[in-house]
Amino acid sequence: MGLFTKFLNLFKSGDAKEREANVEEYEDLFLESDFGSSLSYHLSELLLKKAKEDKVKDASSIRNIIKDELSSLITSFDFEPQRGDLSVALLLGVNGSGKTTTAAKLGKLFKNKGYSVILGAADTFRAAASEQLVLHGERLSIPVVAPVNAGNPAAVVYDTLDAAASKKSELALIDTAGRLHTKDNLIKEMQKVDKIVNSRVDKEHYYKFLVLDATSGQNLFNQASVFTTSLGIDAIILTKLDSGSKGGAVIRISKELNLPIVYTCTGEGYDDIKKFNKDEFLENLLK
Ligand SMILES: Nc1nc2c(ncn2[C@@H]2O[C@H](COP(=O)(O)OP(=O)(O)OP(=O)(O)O)[C@@H](O)[C@H]2O)c(=O)[nH]1
Ligand SMILES: [Mg+2]
């Protein structure tokens, strides 16, 4: 159920005083939408203020007040890699968030735009991980650099950047592991990978995308803050918006961690990816 339907169910018309009392009940709806406690409190306080100004006449006015406020809190990111020289995008995130699938989707998207694309399978933790990316590469006719030895993502990154240089690739999409023996190990490995890319590619042509599964709810905030603090993230790719979750958790992430959103994904198919559209995202959340 979208938020607007919930607003409709909760809204009680009545005199101004009754409406003021009523809007205080909306905080729970925001919490249910994974907005987190401080944002939920902020929004319910905003509604109360508007109710006191007699600007809350019906569920639609609540919807508009909330939409405007949320719109001011989230930012979008435009990913337009340069042509004629290499850009690198590293796909980061916890296991199962959709990194490998998204690498393939982006591969197809940019190949279709005429970019020369290469994929790097730097998830060397599981043998099946590189096989998954190699298969995508075969289906999409995109070259994939796969690990020679298990357990050495840094080597795959070197090899991918070497291959990109010799093929004159314009976009290297590097898939990474979502799970190592411990979370600390994962972050340390990713920091090594990050160092290598940084030493080989200009900062402005190096992008770190954090892939977040919309169905993970409030857990997303912790994931995002760990990756942001230890690696620095340029933008979020939000996956699985087709699975019922509306991705409300990303608003707090965008606001508090200052992270824009670059793409949203709505399925397992190669074409189920599109540029983040703030208005569409909020319309869906507030349906
Ligand atoms: N419904 C839906 N499923 C998705 C989406 N993106 C990825 N998936 C599925 O989610 C599962 C995990 O996706 P992967 O791309 O393997 O995730 P990963 O982050 O690479 O996972 P690890 O390699 O284990 O770290 C797969 O079954 C994908 O098909 C999406 O936008 N919508
Ligand atoms: Mg993977």
Q: Overview of this structure, please?
A:
The protein is α/β, with parallel strands linked by helices and 287 residues long. It has two domains: 3-73, Four Helix Bundle (Hemerythrin (Met), subunit A) (Up-down Bundle), CATH 1.20.120; 87-285, Rossmann fold. It is built from twelve helices and eight strands. An eight-stranded mixed beta sheet has the order 3-2-4-1-5-6-7-8, sandwiched between helices. A hairpin with a 7-residue loop joins strand 7 (261-265) and strand 8 (273-275). The chain is elongated and about 70 Å long. Magnesium ion binds next to helix 6.
Stretches where pLDDT is under 50 for at least 5 consecutive residues are none
How is the main sheet built? 8 strands, mixed
- What is the count of DSSP helices, taking H or I runs of 4+ residues? 12
- In CATH, the homologous superfamily of the largest domain goes by the name P-loop containing nucleotide triphosphate hydrolases
Quantity of strands, as a count: 8
Residue share in helix: 40-55%
Shape: elongated
Adjacency order of strands in the biggest sheet: 3-2-4-1-5-6-7-8
Integer tally of domains: 2
